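Section 5: illustrative case.
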């Protein structure tokens, strides 16, 4: 069987941890093909015709939900966005009851974002369809790491042996965790940079070097990946003021000078300009890949939807 039609060996995509290098490469190679398709005039395929995709987001999202919706529709699926703010969940329905209700509707794909780590895995055990984790608590956000990897690979030609600095609010970031796992699997070197209060204890055990000084941590880096300051998850004082945070850890040209001359700037969005990143740096078309990350997100999510439904489509 050619790799183009090869099965994906997992029923769900719940995280990057546990994936093999070959499996990540399979997703990225297929996503590369979908980038090309998405740049054509006719972007649609009927690959998932007759299949139903439900996007179930317990947390607010613009980029990820829209990206998954667009991915499903471009592959021909029937896509339903379920709003938890107006659903029975708001009336006290448990996650297990919600899973049972959705399962009775016989969806083929369930894309879930939830505020509690492990909630998506729990839900996946209660349904008969493929489940994709669109972010669970502080745990993982696998498709974000995959789209970041695709962005880097297309710009740099590889992931192995690159030095990648992940900067800012690592403590609350599921994006950081998924990226650390993926970059280590693919042979990159990972650095974490931030104030001690925003670096999780034992972070070095994840396979990363820890730096508390921005310029020291950015020295000779190939990739500078900024993280959003997740104030909504913070209870207590993690840093004195926003302006002080920016002066020490916000990315501006002065700090960026420590990285390689062609270092790529990334941010998962949404950005807090003047907090994590200077506006001029974010909009620098020669250095910033932030808009490219958004484009890669649709292609990566199309690849994931395709791979997770291949066995089902063969059976029908």
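Designed sequence:
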């Amino acid at each position: 069987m050619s790799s183009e039609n090869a099965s994906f060996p997992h029923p769900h995509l719940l995280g990057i941890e546990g994936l093999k290098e070959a499996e990540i490469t399979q997703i990225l190679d297929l996503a590369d093909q979908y980038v090309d398709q998405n740049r054509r005039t006719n972007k649609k395929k009927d690959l998932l015709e007759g299949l139903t995709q439900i996007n179930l987001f317990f947390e607010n999202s613009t980029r990820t939900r829209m990206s998954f919706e667009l991915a499903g529709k471009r592959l021909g699926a029937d896509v339903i966005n379920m709003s938890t703010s107006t659903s029975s969940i708001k009336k006290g329905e448990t996650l297990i009851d919600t899973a049972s209700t959705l399962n009775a509707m016989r969806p083929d794909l369930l894309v879930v974002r939830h505020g509690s780590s492990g909630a998506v895995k729990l839900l996946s055990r209660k349904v008969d369809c493929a489940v994709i984790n669109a972010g669970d608590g502080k745990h993982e956000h696998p498709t974000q790491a995959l789209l970041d990897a695709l962005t880097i690979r297309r710009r740099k030609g590889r992931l192995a042996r690159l030095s990648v600095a992940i900067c800012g609010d690592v403590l609350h970031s599921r994006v950081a965790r998924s990226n650390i796992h993926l970059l280590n699997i693919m042979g990159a070197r990972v650095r974490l940079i931030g104030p001690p209060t925003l670096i999780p204890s034992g972070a070095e055990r994840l396979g990363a070097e820890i730096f508390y000084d921005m310029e020291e941590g950015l020295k000779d880096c190939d990739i500078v990946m900024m993280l959003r300051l997740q104030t909504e998850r913070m209870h207590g004082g993690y840093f004195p003021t926003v302006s002080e945070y920016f002066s020490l850890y916000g990315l501006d040209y002065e700090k960026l000078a420590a990285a390689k001359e062609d270092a790529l700037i990334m941010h998962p969005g949404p950005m807090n300009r003047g907090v994590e990143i200077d506006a001029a740096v974010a909009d620098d078309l020669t250095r910033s890949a932030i808009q490219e990350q958004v484009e890669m997100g649709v292609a990566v999510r199309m690849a994931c939807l395709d791979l997770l439904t291949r066995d089902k489509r063969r059976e029908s």
